[in-house]
Sequence to fold (171 residues):
Amino acid sequence: MKQRLFMYLFIFTLLLVIFQFVNSKNIIEGYDQKLTSYMEVNTQLKDSIRGIEDNLVSDIYTFKFDTNEDAMMYWEDQGFRISEFVPFIKDELMNLNIYETEDHPLVPYASMTDQKMLIDQIRMLNHKWIIASFTDGKYWGEMLLAYNIETINGQKELKFKVIESSLYSPR
Fold:
């Protein structure tokens, strides 16, 4: 009887050890699969971030007045403070949206709706050029402007000149 009891205990212990081994193995394999998938996703996300950073760096350093040292130095050498100059240029351009005539003073297209053509977005490229978008609510377009500050009769005046423009058709 004692031998049978030990044999049953031995078999029970052996089954318990096998169960624990298989269960632990399944748990570890599950963790390994999750870790592998997380590592793959992490690699993909890092590659995506790297690509976005590359695009961002190229966007920051190309055609933007705020990051163009030479353009800022040009106007600083003329006696302007950049912190006041950029808002001044943008305000002057936006003030052209207040007009009494039928046509906008700068936008080379007449409005085809009951609304006036208005400049809505401005991006200073450098010390000479600006890209501006305009719309009348239905039609919109973009234009490349040249700007300069001229001294006339001792007064400094801001002058804008349309270099090129395009009008998009509504969808």
